[in-house]
């Protein structure tokens, strides 16, 4: 295998047992082969996500994962890349790999010298210490130690690393037996063992994976939150190794990640839903949390995730930061709202045609928008006497007497005339009411 | 619902859709059109309370008027009365006995409209447009609550020109809801304040917004014992947050969901995200309706966390909605909300209010 210990085990697809160089490629493969809707070809992110999509959008149920080998077709098991793979399957895989590598190692042991040296160097002092120790014990130790640092380095969870160990251990003895010739075999041997470690530790209480999930799962959050809600039973049952999956948030708070703590707060499912896809792929789990805390409106996109269906995101989130409430246009989404920090009503009310209607200080403007014949005078109110009844406003004059003036209001004229309660203003010249009628446009009646 | 038949109401109204052969996109859901709709954007809708027999709908608009229709059982709507302000009407509500309607306007005043006498008198004054108005009926007091862009929340005894109480808010009031003894106000800059109304109104808690964009609408929901227990908050970013005041497990119980977005199945085109203009809860089922700038309405079940229905797209944004007191009628208004700015405003375009039978579609989905 490669000289570098990339996560100690090459990513492989649980559904069809194929190997991949890179987890990204693995995920692309899963999306295209196993999580693709046969009806509309939409690519989902997980099995349950696909099931829900088919149910919601096409009203069809599916009960097995497409293109999966028998025994690996469980649609309810939530697997994403290397995450979610049940423990026993992982072990099986490791064993198979070990067997394979044992065979190939025996054949290639000579050639491994150079590799071995390199690996020894990488493993650092720990490996040399191991060499001094009786092979078996040493091997185990070696397994453990080199295993941990990389893990710790990764998600940075040494205790977590330990938790992962126990599952590993059973794997170790078998290895050891086969291995004595194999200190050389260590590098390749390391891979499968180490395979336990990498961020996707199914055995973990889900902290790093939890992180990873929340970060790595953004695209799935969409279908996923839908899932627990739509089918809480199946998903809950189906994700034994990731009990925290739907409840990733609460678990995430525990930990070691100070940023995670913030993340939980801000993790408004929104954020969860979105920015992930970019965050997860480009940054280590730790860094994705800061992404969470940022309001990054781009988070509002996730156009790829079930936009048409109601995606119900779990995380509640009290946002710790208060970002400017401005619109964002990103490549994948656009907010249909004028780009300002005021409300639509405020914006509209600033239009001159609405401004003109505001009462002038001390006067009441009975104004009608230029457009409609708003003189909506109800039959009961003949429009003349009205000033009295109802005029009884406790406040000083800002009563816009509806009946009057409305129809008389000429568009464009912003006559200071307004009638104040005391009425009168010069404009009318004459009994306040009296003058009106002539001016009233007949259209004023409803 | 009904026949659109001979309308007795005055005004032109209702030549409706029913007559035309093609489906206009102004009413793709083929719902009942209310006759004599306002001439400018409709800002608010409210149905009469159960204390009054029959169903009366009031709607306030940017044409400075607030209109009242009677909605008959056969679905016909009869315009009954109208009142004017001197500025656009932004909100309206009923008193608990259904005899008065309170209206709030950009003209910085609020009025009390006595329907029996068809007289309206001013009962409140602010330093800025009043955006929200609600009637509060407490065992030991009754008053009108007004929230304004002048950053104050005032409470008025309608008999006095001075407010009985005035509370300062951090920012301009954008929307509010009241279900005794709880009141929620959402302000500019994503402010969110809960008030308790027992004895006298007081600020209960300021909440960090669960949403990251401007708040646009809020509606309180009740628990099975009919006590207010939380609220739904909508933003301009096509998202609604369901927030409980004292949930057993906030992380699990509170959540947000996306809505009013254009289909992004085709990921090459950017997804359009629309504002949620209003949220209303069904009085019986507890399910909710949201209406957005995209011209659609959707029904949701917040407990099952699923969507119940989304409508076809209307050709204008939907700006307001409400349920009648028994939840049989869902009213929604189609008019321009300024979401695309000034350029898209067409004063010639008609505004509509539609009524839909809501008895079946809002039944909660059974949780699996």
Automatic annotation (TrEMBL), chain A:
Q: Which organism is it from?
A: Betta splendens (Siamese fighting fish)
In the record, biological process GO terms are: attachment of spindle microtubules to kinetochore; mitotic spindle assembly; mitotic spindle assembly checkpoint signaling
> Metal-binding among the record's keywords?
yes
Composition skew (Low complexity), residue ranges:
295-333
- Record-given protein name: BUB3-interacting and GLEBS motif-containing protein ZNF207b isoform X3
Localization, per the record, is: Nucleus
Keyword entries, A-Z: Metal-binding, Nucleus, Zinc, Zinc-finger
Q: Where does the record place the C2H2-type domain?
A: 13-34, 37-58
From the record, what ranges are coiled-coil? none
* Matches recorded under InterPro entries: Znf_C2H2_type
Give the transmembrane region(s).
none
> From start to end residue, where is composition biased (Basic and acidic residues)?
85-111
Q: Where is this region: Disordered?
A: 82-126, 267-342
- Specify residue ranges for compositional bias: Acidic residues: 112-123
From TrEMBL, chain B:
Q: Which family does it belong to?
A: Belongs to the WD repeat rae1 family.
Keywords associated with the record = Cell cycle, Cell division, Cytoplasm, Mitosis, Nucleus, Repeat, Transport, WD repeat
The record, for InterPro entries, names: WD40/YVTN_repeat-like_dom_sf (IPR015943), WD40_PAC1 (IPR020472), WD40_repeat_CS (IPR019775), WD40_repeat_dom_sf (IPR036322), WD40_rpt (IPR001680)
**First and last residues of every WD repeat:** 82-123, 123-166, 276-310
Pfam families, alphabetized: WD40
Tell me, which GO biological process terms does this entry list? cell division
Organism domain of life: Eukaryota
Q: Give the lineage.
A: Eukaryota, Metazoa, Chordata, Craniata, Vertebrata
Q: Where is this region: Disordered?
A: 15-37
The record's subcellular locations are:
Cytoplasm, Cytoskeleton, Spindle pole; Nucleus
Q: Which organism is it from?
A: Betta splendens
What's the name of the protein? Rae1 protein homolog
CC per GO annotation? nuclear envelope; spindle pole
Q: Which residues form a coiled coil?
A: none
């Amino acid at each position: 295998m490669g000289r570098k210990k990339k996560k100690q085990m090459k990513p492989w697809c649980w559904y069809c047992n194929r190997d991949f160089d890179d987890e990204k490629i693995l995920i692309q493969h899963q999306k295209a082969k196993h999580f693709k809707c046969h009806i509309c070809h939409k690519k989902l992110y997980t099995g349950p996500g696909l099931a829900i999509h088919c149910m919601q959008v096409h009203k069809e149920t599916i009960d097995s994962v497409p293109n999966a080998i028998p025994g690996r077709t469980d649609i309810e098991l939530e697997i994403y890349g290397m995450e979610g793979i049940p423990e026993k399957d992982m072990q099986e895989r490791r064993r198979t790999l070990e067997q394979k590598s044992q065979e190939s190692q025996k054949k290639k042991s000579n050639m491994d010298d150079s590799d071995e040296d390199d690996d020894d160097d990488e493993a650092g002092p720990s490996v040399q210490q191991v060499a001094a120790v009786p092979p078996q014990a040493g091997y185990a130790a070696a397994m453990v130690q080199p295993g941990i640092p990389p893990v710790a380095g990764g998600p940075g969870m040494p205790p977590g690393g330990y938790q992962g160990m126990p599952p590993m251990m059973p794997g170790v003895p078998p290895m050891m037996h086969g291995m004595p010739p194999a200190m050389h075999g260590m590098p390749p041997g390391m891979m499968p063992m180490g395979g336990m470690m990498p961020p996707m530790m199914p055995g973990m209480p889900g902290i790093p994976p939890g992180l990873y999930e929340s970060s790595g799962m953004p695209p799935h959050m969409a279908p996923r939150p839908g899932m627990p809600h739509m089918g809480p039973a199946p998903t809950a049952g189906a994700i034994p190794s990731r009990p925290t999956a739907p409840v990733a948030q609460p678990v995430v708070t525990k930990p070691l990640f100070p940023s995670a703590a913030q993340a939980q707060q801000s993790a408004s499912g929104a954020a969860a839903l979105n920015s992930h896809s970019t965050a997860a792929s480009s940054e280590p789990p730790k860094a994705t949390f800061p992404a969470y805390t940022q309001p990054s409106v781009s988070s509002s996109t996730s156009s790829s995730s079930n936009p048409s269906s109601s995606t119900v995101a779990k995380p509640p989130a009290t946002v710790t930061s208060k970002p400017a409430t401005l619109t964002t246009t990103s490549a994948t989404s656009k907010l249909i709202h004028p780009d300002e920090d005021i409300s639509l009503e405020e914006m509209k009310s600033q239009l001159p045609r609405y401004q003109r209607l505001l009462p002038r200080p001390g006067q009441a403007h009975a104004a009608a928008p230029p457009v409609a014949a708003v003189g909506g005078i109800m039959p009961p109110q003949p429009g003349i006497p009205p000033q009295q009844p109802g005029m009884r406003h406790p406040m000083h004059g800002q009563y816009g007497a509806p009946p009057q003036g409305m129809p008389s209001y000429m568009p464009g004229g912003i006559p200071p005339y307004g009638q104040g309660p005391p009425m009168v203003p010069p404009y009318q010249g004459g009994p306040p009411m009296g003058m009106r009628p002539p001016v009233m446009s007949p259209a004023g009646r409803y | 619902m009904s026949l659109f038949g001979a309308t007795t109401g005055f005004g032109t109204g209702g030549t409706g859709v029913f007559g035309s052969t093609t489906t206009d996109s102004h009413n793709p859901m083929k719902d009942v059109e209310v006759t004599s709709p306002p001439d400018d954007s409709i800002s608010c809708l409210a149905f009469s309370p159960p204390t009054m027999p029959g169903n009366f709908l009031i709607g306030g608009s940017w044409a400075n008027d607030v209109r009242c229709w009677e909605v008959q059982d056969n679905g016909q709507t009869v315009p009954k009365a109208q009142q004017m302000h001197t500025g656009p009407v932004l909100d309206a509500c009923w008193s608990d006995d259904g005899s008065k309607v309170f209206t709030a306007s950009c003209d910085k005043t609020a009025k009390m409209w006595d329907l029996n006498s068809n007289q309206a008198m001013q009962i409140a004054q602010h330093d800025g447009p009043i955006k929200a108005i609600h009637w509060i009926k407490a065992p030991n007091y009754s008053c009108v609550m007004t929230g304004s862009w002048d950053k104050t929340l005032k409470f008025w005894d309608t008999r006095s020109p001075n407010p009985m109480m005035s509370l300062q808010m951090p920012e301009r009031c954008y929307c509010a809801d009241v279900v005794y003894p709880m009141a929620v106000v959402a302000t500019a800059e994503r402010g969110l304040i809960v008030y308790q109304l027992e004895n006298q109104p007081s600020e209960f808690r300021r909440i960090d917004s669960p949403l990251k964009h401007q708040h646009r609408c809020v509606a309180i929901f009740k628990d099975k014992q009919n006590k207010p227990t939380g609220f739904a908050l909508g933003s301009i970013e096509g998202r609604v947050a369901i927030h409980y005041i004292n949930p057993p497990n906030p992380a699990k119980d509170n959540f947000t969901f996306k809505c009013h977005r254009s289909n992004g199945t085709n990921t090459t085109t950017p997804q359009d995200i629309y504002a949620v203009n209003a949220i209303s809860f069904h009085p019986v089922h507890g399910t909710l309706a949201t209406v957005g700038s995209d011209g659609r309405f959707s029904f949701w079940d917040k407990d099952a966390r699923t969507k119940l229905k989304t409508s076809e797209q209307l050709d204008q944004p939907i700006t307001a909605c409400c349920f009648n007191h028994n939840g049989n009628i869902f009213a929604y208004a189609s008019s321009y909300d300024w979401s695309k700015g000034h350029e898209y405003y067409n004063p010639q375009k008609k505004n509509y209010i539609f009524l839909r039978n809501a008895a079946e579609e809002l039944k909660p989905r059974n949780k699996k």
